[in-house]
Amino acid sequence: MSRTWAYLSNYLVYSSMAVYTLSFFAHAIETAWAVRLTTEDSKKTLDYKRTEKVARIATAMMILGFLFLVAGVIARGISAGRVPWGNMYEFSITGAMAFSGAYLAALRKYDLRWLGLIVSIAVLLTLGTAVAVLYRPSAPLVPALKSTWLVIHVSAAIISGGVFLLANAIAATYLYLDAMESRGERTAWAKRLPSLEDLDQLSYRLVAFVFPLWTFAVIAGAIWAESAWGRYWGWDPKETWAFITWVAYAAYLHARVTVGWRGRKAAWLCLFAGSTFLFNYVYVNIWGTGKHTYSGL
Amino acid sequence: MSQEIDLPELGSVGLLRYGWRQLTSMRTALILLLLLGVAAIPGSIIPQRTQNPMKVSEYFKNSPDLFRWMDRFSLFDVYGSAWFSAIYILLFISLIGCVLPRTIEHFHASRALPPATPKNLDRMEQYSSWSAHGDELEKARDWFKSKGFRILEKDGSISAEKGFMRETGNLFFHLALILILLGISFSSLFGMRGEAILNVGERFVNIPTSYDSLQYGKLFKEGHLSNFVITVDKFTAKYNIETNAPEDYTLEVTFAQGDLRQSEKRTIKVNSPLRLGNTNIYLQANGYSPVVTVRDSKGNVAMQGPVPFLPQDGNLRSIGAIKVPDAQPQIGFVGSFVPTYARSEGNGAISAFPEALDPRLLLSAWIGDLGLDSGVPQSVYRIDTSKMKQVGLKSLKPGETYTYPQGSITFEGYQQWVNLQIVNDPGKNFALLGGIVAILGLLASLFTRRRRIWIRVGESVEVAGLAKNAAPGLEIEMQQFVAMLKGEK
Known about the structure:
The complex is a heterodimer.
Chain A: H1 2-39, H2 45-80, H3 88-109, H4 116-134, H5 148-183, H6 196-229, H7 237-259, H8 263-286
Helix pairs in contact in A: 1-2, 1-4, 2-3, 3-4, 3-5, 5-6, 5-8, 6-7, 6-8, 7-8
Chain B: H1 11-23, H2 26-39, H3 42-45, H4 53-62, H5 64-72, H6 82-111, E1 125-131, H7 136-146, E2 150-154, E3 157-162, H8 165-190, E4 192-199, E5 203-205, E6 213-216, E7 228-239, E8 246-257, E9 263-269, E10 274-276, E11 279-296, E12 301-306, E13 310-311, E14 318-324, E15 331-338, E16 341-344, E17 348-351, E18 360-368, E19 388-396, E20 401-404, E21 407-424, H9 428-447, E22 451-457, E23 460-467, H10 474-485
Antiparallel strand pairs in B: 1-23, 2-3, 3-22, 4-6, 4-21, 5-7, 7-8, 8-9, 10-11, 11-12, 11-21, 13-14, 14-15, 15-18, 16-17, 18-19, 20-21, 22-23
């Protein structure tokens, strides 16, 4: 029974990778055509419609891939009889799900399709690494992880992470375009991207929206640590880096709201804060020691 | 001609005031905040005494000179170091210096009425104007009141303001951070934390000498150890037969508090400690204790009982030392216990499963000076064999005896041990409260928009609005307001 679900989960994850790949190609084609449109000073409405159609296919594929991935994550959970957050393979597939989910959710409000290419590449890389390197057979949890707080703490952390990374991608785009604009005009393909001010605002809003959730994730972790390890804060490497991420984003919010940083400086700070989150995920899970490292990743 | 700039004398009071202003400036606070983040990094990369003392001593062995230098900068004790404390204490002073005046200011502002409607509304954002109907002012007043605006009515105009929760939330968030810090300091001054290894069947009385390690806060009084006795009745560990990973640890204890005649049965698990007010008892680790009987050459028992061994891997291959200081000459056994015996090439005996399915005790016997009187602290799991002579090696099944010229050792069987962590943390509820208030304050401050709306009714109706911090959403609100006034909805 549980083995069937585990296989099903694997197939779903593979299928989602295939669909994400299609989405990636559709985004690539759309970007290429859009670039040509802007270079040729588009008079051809036909071409424009064609590009728009491809963009829709790309987004539809992204949604489909996301749904496959959600199903894959759920099947993984059923196979193990628990929430699927017990090892790094499971964190990675859930993280990829959260990242593309954050993108799709933001897409409802903002036209972010220019970001789709980056998102699909990032998701494919994460899933590829998960499947090829991090895969572990589905198994029950070790005693320390058996707690309702696993659901609360880890889901809050994963969602925050997805949104942080999205904000990071936007901040990086900002810096790239900013450098381009300071050299002169935007090149053809970049012309369809939003203005610098919009990018600046967008990454700020994403961070401001998710910062309370990250605070909650850290506090929920502390409450859980109190009942599992006998202390709510112990400067375990994972805790330390969660704290560093928190401090970095707090500094970012203060810099914007109180000191009035905008643009380049704010984007760098945002990138720095996001990289502390990534570092925590990669370094501490793989090379770190401490209480957050469980058997074999 | 050179002009000299006339600098005013600062004086000591002026200097203090200058320093205070610098410290409480937002710029300084921001730098301190970032510095705190950076200062936390080394502690996550360099091993810390509080978490991994073994790794720290390894560091010392590998490069003693570097170690001494690093230790001078407290790099093995970052989070208790003077420089780390200095950063967060300065940050919190800066925070208090910033938050307290703002709290007072905000308290006054929240009781004051909004400022009067400016003369030239057409210079404001979201301005619009149309010819008056007559009842706009009443309509506006009702609308403002129903939406919880605070209003000032004067000379045919209303000035309305909303969104004070933004600053209130912001202040509560920062005050809550101070509460968390107070909770942590309170715990470290008045709390205690200790560990004890107990074999199944043993009894623990909560007095200082029962502990294997015990740390007090600076202001903790010994008499504050809560009065209880615990007997370890049964320990069950369940393992996954495919992955060998543990699935469940259950510890059953008999527990008596105050009156020792009234005892009760309790269960302790990894995620559910035994809670007695501020004192909690946690199940932290477990392992095996081989039970041995050591006899001298005449057959007299020199030592008998379970000896806790330290697990080395997921399958609980454990190492330990059996020391018999009363024997003449002293004898010690460097031992290795495997719960499920298997052989691997190169490594000798290994354990194939963490449950004791086919236990073996592998011993190497040493005769000589155990070094227990040398004054140097010794690990109970290791023997310093530098002044000893090896007399033999043996692998024993339960019930078997190994006889050597000076006596014999019998491997009677095994017991399980558990490591109990006993913690008194009186400040943690303050920290928890601080955490909850911090999140609520953060939500209030990040999702409340502070804005003002004005209306003036004369021959024509004029309305305008202003959002602080360019918060979004004012445009839509103004559209609704205007539609309501015009009676469109």
